């Protein structure tokens, strides 16, 4: 057992545990913070897999942007009084069954599949490659994604704007 | 890497996905559902990167993941704006309460 | 038969019927105004003038005929006015012809008619409908003259119908009383029944003649072509018999014989001048005239002649029995007329056509006199017609009484008065004619006795004995004015003198007096039985004299009986009326209940038939129509059902189905986001699973 493997297992347990916390959290605030843990864990996983730039991006965007946004929303819509009420889950047994079934099946698939594996390359900084790829081969998705972001920006402003009665 | 195969990462991703799915279908809080969606997206990202690393297909796995993150950001922004709008109309973000479109 | 068949043209003959027609037209159109402006006298003058002028012209025609040789008289005078019907083989013109027979008739009609017109100006003096009366009277005269002057059977029929109409109008003259209107209707309707037979006879005659190529209805032509029908048979019956029987049916209607006589007594509801003119002297004689005119046809049908004679004799007897018990002065005379008409038909039936026409003429004189006399009595009595309330009028009404007595003697057959000659001619013919029979003679003689009885009963009840009238009526008794008594005297004179035109050979032969009347009519009627007594030996003459004596004796017996009962009052008439339980008396008093029989059988029968056909029409025919309508309604209802349930149903099923499905599907829209998420997840997983299985992934 190498260090990497041990590191992986630790990170995996942390991530999965946080995810569990998100799923089973009694209060939405707890779930939000658990989500932060999950996202951190995922960033670590990325680094472990050699995608260093992606891990940073994850941290910056997901944790620093999305999670903060979510937290804002949580705070804005949180009612101290109905903490429990708003978080009570419905149809939990069914959900467990469904999700459990899916999980089991997918795991089985994962274990049985003949994954394509090639000789790994030594990990190095990926930022240069990603940047190149974005501006050459994958330019279109990049631009489209920017447009989408723009649209989302405008939409979010419009939606959350207070109704102005003319 | 040692015994670390792609399978480990796929299993991890599966667990994340399952938990995210669970959040989506079970939570009453709209934000909880959104969190579930984030989990699912993250699980997908983990899969992408793992496959990129182990199948040595270049940078496209990571690029995919970046695009996913971008879209997740957009979606989260809009989703949260909607949730805020719902909160303004219904005084609550319990999805059970937003059944005005009931047929 | 006349050797010369070409009539002599004489245009003035047309004026004879047309003058009264002009009078009727003027009076009908302007009568009311004329009466207002110029008074009733002017109306009376006009009406009498037209008929008087017609009489003068008739005399002229008669004289002209007299001047012609006997052979030419048969063809006579002809006034052809204008063509009328020219269709196929039927050629009939409006033309008036005068031959010996029609000369007699027009003299009777215009002469006696004129006297009655004069009488009526006095009788109807107080009536506001004066002008209307004379308009009808003139119209009637026109129609009657058309009947006797018409040169064809069709024109005769036009006059036939015309007198029927005028008779109706005049009977119901005082129409405000419904009983009078009913009497008029009865006359007209009963006549129509007879006319139906008459018309059928005309059709049959023309049709059968036409089959031989001799289709004609002109009298002068019929005489020559009629023998063509001699051997013909139709439906097993000889054609001449069939034709003459049908024509005779018409005659029974018009001339009041059995079975269609019932209208004549009711016709007494009309004013008395009407009864005198129409129902005594002229209209009712139309049937006799018709047979006289077509005598050659009747001679070819011995069976019909037998029927005619029997009907005539039976009618004479029946009417006489009824007359015996009547108490209304006019009813007695009405039944007497029916009885005397029966005599005339008896004469025609035994082939003595001339004798029948002779009696027609003499009867016209004395019956008109009797009716006008009764009118005078009624006038004096202030409208009373019941003889039981009269009596002892001889002193108060001298002229009426005397003329009435003369006319009564005439009708009774008192020797040397008119009725004696004519009646004995008939009785002798009944006995001696080849078509005759001694039974008929016996019947005729019995009727003579009855006639004598009831006529003198009437005379004694009305003019003799004590007056049974109310005091105030007695007070007002007065003789009628001259305008009424003068015609009475003229007619009474005629009742005496007219008979001498027909002195029978038995009486006249030895004395050298010819039977003028017979000879006059010979061109029309052919050689008569009496013209040449068979054998011409004194044996025949003796029988005739003996029969004459018998009939006179029977008549005298009748007079004696009447005198005993109604003057001497011993035995009392009540004995007879109460005899045998009063049944015979009631039977004759009630006219043998014939009217009641007709009412029950024919009138009720017709009404029942009408009800039956109405029922048929309402239930069967209307039922069919309504049934068809109902069927259509039913079909349309079915179609409606189909439309409502099947067609609409299909449409509704689609609509309702959509609605039901929609309602079910609506439950999908729970509005709960959780459910939606579930579905999304399941959908994704499902499609992934599908894709995997399809792609064959492990």
Round the Cα radius of gyration of chain A to an integer and report it.
20 Å
Question: How many β-strand runs of chain A?
Answer: 0
Terminal CA distance of chain A reads: 69 Å
Q: How are strands sequenced across the largest beta sheet of chain C?
A: 1-2-3
Give the amount of beta strand of chain C, in percent. under 5%
Biggest interface between protein chains, with counts per chain? A-B, 88 and 75 residues
Low-confidence stretches of chain C: 529-537
Terminal CA distance of chain C? 145 Å
Our count of helices of chain C gives: 28
Would you write up a description of this structure?
- In chain A, 76% of the residues lie in helices and 0% in strands.
- Chain A contains seven helices and no strands.
- In chain A, helix 1 runs antiparallel to helix 2 (28-48) and helix 2 (28-48) runs antiparallel to helix 3.
- Chain B has a single domain (6-90), classed as Helix Hairpins, CATH 1.10.287.
- Chain B is 76% helix and 0% strand.
- Chain B is built from three helices and no strands.
- Chain C is mainly alpha-helical and 698 residues long.
- Helices cover 73% and strands 4% of the residues of chain C.
- In chain C, a hairpin with a 2-residue loop joins strand 4 (233-234) and strand 5 (237-238).
- Chain C is elongated, with a radius of gyration of 39 Å.
- Chains in contact: A-B, A-C, B-C.
- At the A-C interface, helix 5 of A face helix 28 of C.
Key words describing this protein structure:
heterotrimer; A: 166 residues; mainly alpha; Four Helix Bundle (Hemerythrin (Met), subunit A); 2 domains; 7 helices; B: 103 residues; 0% strand
Task: List strands and helices in order, with pairings.
The complex is a heterotrimer of chains A (about 170), B (about 100) and C (about 700).
Chain A (H helix, E strand, L loop, with lengths): L2 H22 L3 H21 L3 H26 L5 H5 L4 H21 L14 H9 L3 H22 L6
Chain B lengths: L5 H21 L3 H26 L4 H31 L13
Helix pairs in contact in B: 1-2, 2-3
Chain C lengths: L7 E2 L5 H24 L1 H28 L2 H4 L3 E11 L2 E9 L1 H24 L6 H20 L3 H19 L6 H34 L7 H7 L7 E2 L2 E2 H16 L8 H4 L5 H10 L4 H8 L1 H5 L2 H24 L3 H21 L3 H28 L17 H15 L5 H15 L5 H26 L7 H6 L5 H16 L7 H7 L4 H10 L12 H31 L4 H6 L4 H7 L4 H73 L6 H23 L3
Parallel strand pairs in C: 1-2
Antiparallel strand pairs in C: 2-3, 4-5
Helix pairs in contact in C: 1-2, 1-5, 2-4, 2-5, 4-5, 4-11, 4-16, 4-21, 5-6, 6-7, 7-9, 9-12, 9-14, 11-16, 12-16, 14-15, 14-19, 14-26, 15-16, 15-18, 15-19, 16-17, 16-18, 16-21, 16-23, 17-19, 17-21, 18-19, 18-24, 19-24
